[in-house]
Amino acid sequence: PYVPSPPASAESPIKPGAGRPAAVGRIHATLPPARSSPRPACSAPIQCLEAGDSSVDKPVLYRPSAMASEPVLGKLSVRVVRGHNLVVADPLTHTSDPYVVLYYGSQKVKTSVQKKNVNPLWNDVLVLPVTNLTKPVKLEVFDADTFTADDSMGVAEFSVTDIYDAAKLDLKHASDGTRIKTIYPVGANYLGGESHVSWKNGKVVQDLILKLKNVDSGSVVLQLEWVHVVPGVTL
Ligand SMILES: [Ca+2]
User: Fold this and answer.
1) Domain C2: where (predicted)?
2) Alpha carbon separation from 231 to 71, 106, 107, 196, 203 (Å, rounded)
3) How far apart are the CA of 38 and the centre of ligand 1, in A?
């Protein structure tokens, strides 16, 4: 006849909450000698998290190491103002729930979702540390969906070199509103109209209308502002 073995708790009672710290302690006790190359001492929380065991569930403020080592040339403040004539992605309700994602290198930032609106006003400011002028900022509009994956509503991209070049100029004595450069829409860029780099309120700014591609219609209005950072400081 089958004789059930006594429950584990009868011999070794498990205290609530005792299992996890003990397991973490074991991992830390056994892992370091197994590493073939010694890691540098943890001087920042990010490095400590990278050096730690990845299976330990912690909130991770993760920044890829390549980003941390590249000098930051400045920050680009991107105000995603509005979308115009975006495509209908929800056929049943004949509208869309659009939001904008910006990609720059390994960075990804996004706006809020504007529900049921193909002419949305976001007015959200997204900030990107700029490390490499040869890389464009890529933009994609998505339709937020509750039960299925979000659908693309078009892509675009823009260069950071025009505003960066203007930000290097000595504009202290320029009058407010001075236009520094005009970029015209051509086949190779995504501009839906002239883009102006200007000196406004003591800042170098650029307005952009981007025509979305891979989609039937839609454009997105952006206002860029260059934010200087202290030289040598990495973010
Ligand atoms: Ca939707």
Assistant:
1) 52-173
2) 9, 22, 21, 27, 18
3) 49
Tell me how far apart the alpha carbons of residues 51 and 42 are, in angstroms, rounded to a whole number: 8
User: Quick check: 16 pLDDT over 80?
Assistant: no
Identify which has the larger pLDDT, 26 or 3. 3
Beta-carbon contacts of 89 under 8 Å, excluding residues fewer than 6 positions away, are 96, 97, 98, 143, 151, 153
What's CA 218's distance to the chain center, in Å? 22
Tens digit of pLDDT for each residue in 61-73? 445 544 556 789 9
Whether the pTM exceeds 0.85: the reply is no
Cα–ligand 1 centroid distance for 191 (angstroms): 26
CA of 85 to the centre of ligand 1 (A): 16
Question: Ligand 1: distance of its center to the CA of 215 in Å?
Answer: 16
CATH architecture of the domain covering 70-227 = Sandwich (2.60)
Q: 130 CA distance to ligand 1 centroid (A)?
A: 32
Structure tokens at 226: 């260059």
- pLDDT band per the 50, 70, 90 thresholds, residue 231: low
> How many A from CA of 112 to the centre of ligand 1?
13
pLDDT confidence of 23, banded at 50, 70, 90?
Answer: very low
Distance (angstroms) between ligand 1 centre and the Cα of 91 equals: 9
Mean pLDDT taken over the chain: 80
